Amino acid sequence: MKLGIYPGSFDPLTNGHLDVIRRADKLFDRVIVAIANNESKKPMFTKEERVELASESLSDMEGVSVETFDGLLVDYAVGKGAQAIIRGLRAISDFEFEFQLALMNRHLDSSIETIFMMPKDKYTFLSSRMVKEVASLGGDIKEFVPAPVLRAMLERAEEIKRHSLQPE
Ligand code: ADP
User: Fold this and answer.
1) Which atom of ligand 1 is nearest to the CA of 86?
2) Count of structural domains, the chain
3) pLDDT digits (tens, 9 = 90+) for 67-80
4) Residue 87: domain span
5) Ligand 1: does its nearest atom lie under 6 Å from the Cβ of 12?
6) How far is CA 127 from CA 11, 73, 120, in A?
7) Active site residue 57
8) pLDDT-derived band at 91, boundaries 50, 70, 90
9) Taking all residues of the chain, what is their mean pLDDT, rounded to a whole number?
10) CATH code of the domain containing 14
11) What strand order describes the sheet that includes 113-117?
12) One of 17, 23, 50, 132 is an active-site residue; which one?
C-alpha cells in the first residue's frame, strides 16, 4: 500500500492545495494531509479549525484523510509507514526552500522520498498568506478557496468588523 504524506500549515487550505491533493490521490493508495502545529507562525485558524476545514473540503476523496503532527516530519512520516512526503512547487521562488527542506529530510531519514507536484497554472500565484491578505482588505476570494473555507473566512471577517465597531 502506497501512502503519501502532504504536510503544511494549511492556514487555510486553498484550491492550490486541493489541486496538489487531487494529483497525489491518483498516485497513492492513501494520502494524509498532515497539519503542522506551527504556533510560531501565529495562524489565523487554530489547529482544530484547520483540521475541520480541510476535512470538510476533502470529504469527497475517499483515500484522503486529515491529521495533525508535532515534532519532526520525517519521524511522523516514517512512523505512519509512508513512502513519500508530498510538497507543492509553484514557482522558482519555492524551489530553494523546498530543495533545502527535501535534502534536510533525506539527511534525517534516507528511507523517505520527497515528491514535488506542480498545480494547474492558474494556482501558481496562490498562497494561504495571499488569500488572507486579499480577504482582510475586502477582496473576493471565492475562486481561490473551497466553500467551507470561504464561509469560515467571511465569518471571521464579520467577527473582526463587529469587534472593531464595539464602543471601548
Ligand atoms: P508551509 O507552511 O509548509 O509552507 P503551506 O500550507 O503554505 O505550508 O503549504 C504546504 C505545501 O503546499 C508547500 O509545499 C507549498 O509549497 C504548497 N503549496 C501552497 N500553495 C500552493 C499552490 N497554490 N499550489 C501548489 N502548491 C502549493
Assistant:
1) 14
2) 1
3) 999 999 999 999 99
4) 3-165
5) no
6) 10, 21, 13
7) no
8) confident
9) 93
10) 3.40.50.620
11) 64-69, 30-36, 3-8, 84-88, 113-117
12) 17
